[in-house]
Amino acid sequence: MKHVFPLNKRFRQIIKLSRLCDKHNIPYDMKRFMDGWALSIPNNESELCCVTQHSFSEGGKKNLLEIEFYIGGYESKGNQSAEEILSQLRKVQKYEDTKKRGMHRIQKYFASDDETMVTRDYEILKEYLDFRKENDEWFVVQIKDLGAVGIPNLPLFFPSWCNNITIKKDGYTQKVENIDWTVKENIECIESHGIFLTVPYHNKITAFPVKDSAYSSILNRADDFCPVMLRTKNKNSKLYLPANERAERLCRDFTLQKEACKVLYRDGKIVSVLSKNYSVLETDQLLKVLERKLQEKFPRYLFDKAVLSNDLTIVEYLLNETEIESKIRRKLNESSILSLKFGVRFATSDTGESKVYASIFCDINNARVIIDSGINMEHKGDISPKDFKEKLENIDVVLLNSVKQIQKLSNITITDFAETLKMIVNTSNFLPKLFSDEVIEEITNYLRILLPLIYT
C-alpha cells in the first residue's frame, strides 16, 4: 500500500524506527533503495517487516516520499509513526515466538465472556488497561476479504469438521487453518451459533471464534441482518438454518461489499466487527485526558471505583466539592437527605457504534443516581482524545446544571404521585421515558384500585 508524504518527515520516521530497533534489541538491515532507503527486519528466511521510501516527482512537485511497509505479510494502511510500526512489529514477533514454542496465542483477562469485575483499586484498573493495550488486536480488513466457517453442533458434532477446511469466494477455493476443537473458546462458539469468522492473518486464512454479541455485528457488515440468519435454534413453527449454510451465505454476502471494516479480537474471540467509520479510541488515553481536566477543575477529586468487562469500561470519580455538597445538603435536610456527594462517571465501549461518556452522578443517602447525560462523544469519524479534551472544558458547567436540577426537584410538592413522576420525566432527562411510562401506568392503576378501598 503506497502513500505520498513530505520527504523529510517520513525519512525521519525510518531513522527513528532504526533507533527504536536498537533500543529494543531488534536486528534490522538498512540499505539504499532506488534514490532512498529500505529498512528490513528479517525472520529466518523471510522478512518480518519491511519499510521502504524513495523520492519522486508527481505533477511537477519535487521532494515527495513514496513509502510502503508491511508487517507479518500485511501491507500497512495509513500514515503511521515509527512507534506505531514498532508496536505492530512487537505483536507479530510475540506471535512468531509463541508459535515456535508451540504455545497457544490466546491471552485472556476474564475467564468467561460475561464476567464483570468491580474494583476500587486504581492499580488494578491500570493493570487492566495495560493488558488491553498489549493484547487487544484490531484488524482493518476489506469486508470482501472476510469469510465464514460454520461448524454444526446439532444433532451431532464431529471433530473432523474442524480439519481440512475450505471456503468458496468468488468462484475459487480458500484453504483455512484447522480449528482446534479442544480449545474452550472454540467449543463455546460451536455450542452457541457455530459461526467462525475467517480473517487474513500472518499470511494465512485463520478462523476465529465469534462471541455471541459480535455475531449480529457480522450480519450488519454483510448487510444480511434478518431473522433467518439470527435464528440458531428451532423456534415454534420456524426452523433454523444450519451453521454451515449460514456460513456459505455470509461468504457470498461479503463478496458484495466494497468497504473496509474494523475487527476487534479480544480474550480469544472476535468481539466486534465495526464499520470503517468507527473510531478506535484507547481507553487509557481518554482517562488521562479526563483526569488532567478533573485535576484542573476539581483538584480534590479521587478515584472511586471501576466496573470492567469485555464490552464496557466504567470508571467513577468523586469530586469532593464539599462546599457545594454541604450547601445543597442543608437545603435538602427537610427531604431526609442525610448524605450527598457529586462525582463523574466515565464510560466507553469497543463493541458497537457507541459513545464516550463523562456524566455527573450524585450519591444521595448512598444511592448513586446519574443526574445528567453530561458530555458525550461518538466513536465516529476522525476524532481523537484531543476532541474529548475540548468537550471536557464544560465539565464544571455540567456539574452546575446538575446541582440546579437537584434543587428544582427538591422543591416539588407531591400531591399525585403518578402525575408528579410524569412531570419529572418530561422536564428531566435522567429517567428513561419508555420504562417510566410503564411505571406511571402501573401506579395509576394501583391507586385506582386502592383508593376506593381506603375510603369505604
TrEMBL record:
Name listed for the protein in its UniProt record: Uncharacterized protein
Organism: Anaerobutyricum hallii
